[in-house]
Design goal:
By secondary structure, this protein is α+β, with helices and mostly antiparallel strands. Helix content is 36%, strand content 18%. The strands form four sheets. The protein has an eight-stranded antiparallel β-sheet with strand order 9-10-11-12-19-16-15-14, with helices on one face. The chain has a five-stranded antiparallel β-sheet with strand order 3-4-5-6-7, covered by helices on one side. Strand 3 and strand 4 (459-464) form a beta hairpin.
């Protein structure tokens, strides 16, 4: 173990509450006794003392196949199929076409993987599943033909195979196509067509069970993935459960599959880390949903009630007071919002609703997403983004969250989540049926649509006209341990209308390329200031989700002086340098204008680099025209660039072939300016060309850098 590892563990010991450390140690000890010892001792493990605990065993008389016919708990009532389908066709015709198109593609063996359609068919087609083209669940669809051995127990699968990305294989194994088959059955014009889609659902379940036996292969190598698969299968069953094609034999197979999945999750619950993460919560979500919607299963009451209590305790722990998620990642907040909502609605359908404080916490996730939304309906990319969905009711981009506050408003009957002028998204109809749409339409819109400060996340969102600016200066995720956080302190995203002007580079990859993973979560991949090439927080080699929080970042204040929306952030991450430096950023937003003042406090000589990642390729240096220079000086807040911006070195950004914005700069030190090719990642495994504008200067601090962004007149 290296010295840096000792430092990391010392940090954990000083950061994680002792009670949590003791809990993690106890959980690992139990896991070793039940699992690891069996593998090591082989036949000896059959000793009675090592058997599955009695409270997890199912009596023989209860192991018979379960009857799942008749009316059962369901989030969306199957009896409302015709009225809901009529509403969908009349009110959301384009969305219906999207769903039907995706369902047809999935039936042909094509599956969307991180925003791109991939042919995931098995090489040798099997006629046993004639209602679908069978998928290859052992193949990494983006890993250049890398395959995982289906004969290897899931607990022994290597998640770090060179050139492979296990998340891509898991994306196939979540069986999210079950939603599309169920939705297509509701939109079908005839009973025959409807039954064909029900058979596609059935064939998918049967093929997965045949090719991926319980506990074996890559699809059983992560309890969260197993739980998510059960979650999707259980919820999507509502769309096909009353179809004549769904016979008693299949119902029994589905019950067995869900039982296998929940038993595996129980045995491999992801509670052994020093901090319980979104994985642990997702494990519990699957158990609660299956236990609530399939009460006939022998352990359904345990999953619904016992593990339900664990989930109801965990949700308020993971949701901060301002409604943001403790992973410090907007992408994972979207995922957990959908997962937690699914669990709350399933428990409600079962007649065992979650406690009020839990529903309020879940509502907080949707409310804070509403505060974060850009005019385009996208969210800023703060922290990691792995593009996962909890409720994939409609094809959406990885950052497209405009539908979420409205979905939360309708599901939780909360007017504070309905933003003024927000239309009802199609997800409401699919999840809640026609009554859900009616409920949404009748709700008053009391959501907040102005500038917002999320005090626990330390994120300030400024709005002015069509302008949007997000300044993040918050703690790292998982209580300061890192998790899905980035070194993005005092980083910004800037948009005007539908056009993004400044972003961060984005996540792109995890285990497939650890070096790229670390580069993209590092300081140099964010639109902030870096000092002496130093990271704001230490990145520990080999630990892709560890990021000890020593930067103590915070939003200092937010105000509206002199016609500008303004916020100030600060972090102490560069205090680790021999001659420490404090970075403060002041951000201001006006009508068609934004400005930034970066103050570097300390002493000694340093190299300062202010970066701006621009998601466009038509980016070039030029001089400012006299009229542009006058506008810059007139729009700038008092005290910004007192000697004026450098008119000879500006950067123009073109959009759709026309000039859109001009960046202007000034500094208390002499500076160099460069425009370099780069990329941004709008979703996991996605990249689009971009440009990085970098202002570099070297000299004594204190020092100050100013940047102004002027939206140009469009002809």
């Amino acid at each position: 173990m290296s010295s840096i590892d000792f430092g990391y563990f010392a940090y954990l010991a000083s950061t994680v509450p002792p009670r949590e450390l003791a809990r993690a140690v106890a959980a690992r000890a139990r896991r070793a006794l039940r699992g690891g010892i069996r593998q090591v001792l082989g036949p000896v493990a059959r000793h009675p003392s090592l058997r599955t605990p009695f409270f997890m065993q199912v009596p023989p008389e209860q192991r018979r196949r379960r009857e799942l016919r008749g009316k059962r708990p369901s989030i969306v009532d199957p009896s409302l199929r015709e009225v809901t389908a009529h509403l969908l066709r009349e009110r959301f015709p384009e969305a219906c076409r999207f769903v039907q198109h995706e369902a047809e593609a999935c039936r042909r063996g094509e599956v969307p993987v991180f925003g791109k359609w991939k042919a995931c068919r098995k090489h040798q087609l099997q006629t046993a599943f004639a209602d679908i083209v069978p998928l290859d669940y052992d193949l990494d669809p983006i890993g250049h033909g890398v395959r995982y051995d289906p004969g290897t127990p899931g607990t022994r699968i290597d998640h770090f195979v060179d050139g492979a990305d296990v998340k891509a294989a898991w994306e196939i194994g979540r069986l999210q196509q079950l939603w599309r088959f169920g939705q297509a059955s509701w939109l079908a014009g005839t009973a025959t067509e409807r039954s064909a889609w029900a058979r596609a659902y059935m064939a998918t379940i049967r093929q997965f069970r045949a090719d991926c036996p319980a506990g074996m292969g890559v699809q059983w190598s992560c309890a969260m993935e197993v739980s998510s698969r059960a979650f999707h299968a259980a919820l999507a069953f509502a769309y096909v459960q009353d179809d004549p094609a769904v016979d008693a034999a299949f119902a029994a197979e589905l019950a067995e599959m869900l039982g296998e999945h929940c038993a595996y999750v129980e045995e491999h619950l992801e509670d052994t880390g020093a901090v319980r993460t979104n994985h642990y919560a997702a494990d519990l979500v699957g158990l609660v949903v299956v236990g609530s919607l399939f009460p006939e299963l022998p352990r359904a009451r345990i999953w619904r009630d016992v593990f339900g209590r664990k989930l109801w305790e965990e949700i308020p722990r993971q949701v901060r007071g301002d409604g943001t998620h403790f992973e410090a990642s907007t992408g994972y907040q979207r995922l957990t919002a959908e997962l937690f909502l699914g669990a709350v609605l399933a428990a409600r359908a079962a007649g065992t609703p979650a406690p009020r404080e839990v529903e309020l916490a879940v509502a907080g996730l949707f409310r804070s997403i509403g505060h974060l939304l850009k005019p385009s309906g996208r969210i800023p990319q703060i922290g990691d983004l792995d593009s996962c969905r909890g409720l994939p009711l409609m094809p959406r981009g990885a950052l497209d969250c405009g539908y979420l506050p409205a979905l939360g408003a309708a599901a939780l009957v909360d007017p504070a989540l309905k933003l003024p002028g927000a239309p009802c998204p199609v997800e409401v109809a699919w999840l809640l049926g026609a009554p859900g749409v009616e409920r949404f339409d009748l709700l008053p819109a009391r959501g907040h649509a102005g500038s917002s400060l999320l005090p626990d996340a330390n994120v300030a969102v400024l709005r002015r006209g069509g302008g949007y600016l997000c300044l993040t200066a918050g703690p790292n995720g998982q209580g300061g341990c890192g998790g899905h956080a980035h070194n993005d302190k005092n980083s910004v995203e800037l948009s005007f209308g539908e056009v993004d002007l400044v972003l961060d580079r984005g996540t792109f990859v995890y285990a497939r390329d650890p070096r790229e993973r670390d580069r993209r979560r590092g300081t140099a991949a964010h639109s902030t200031v870096q000092v002496d090439g130093t990271e704001q927080n230490r990145i520990i080699p080999g630990r892709l989700f560890a990021l000890p929080d020593t930067s103590r970042a915070r939003i200092r204040w937010m105000d509206r002086p002199n016609g500008h929306e303004m916020a100030s952030g600060e972090h102490l991450g560069y205090q680790r340098l021999p001659r420490g430096v404090v970075h403060r950023r002041l951000a201001a937003l006006g009508e068609g204008f934004a400005a930034f003042q970066d103050d570097l406090f300390g002493d000694g000589a340093h190299v300062l680099e202010a970066r701006w990642f621009i998601p466009h390729t038509d980016v070039s240096e030029r001089a400012a025209a006299p009229g542009e220079l006058r506008r810059l000086q007139a729009e700038a807040p008092a005290g910004f660039a007192p000697e004026g911006f450098d008119a000879s070195r500006c950067v123009e950004v073109g959009v759709d072939g026309k000039p859109f914005a001009l960046f202007a700069f000034a500094a208390s030190l002499r500076f160099e300016l460069s425009v370099d090719e780069t990329d941004v990642s709008p979703g996991y495994a996605e990249r689009t060309p971009a440009r990085a504008v970098t202002l570099r200067c070297a000299g004594e601090v204190p020092a100050r850098i100013w940047t102004a962004v002027l939206v140009l007149a469009r002809e």
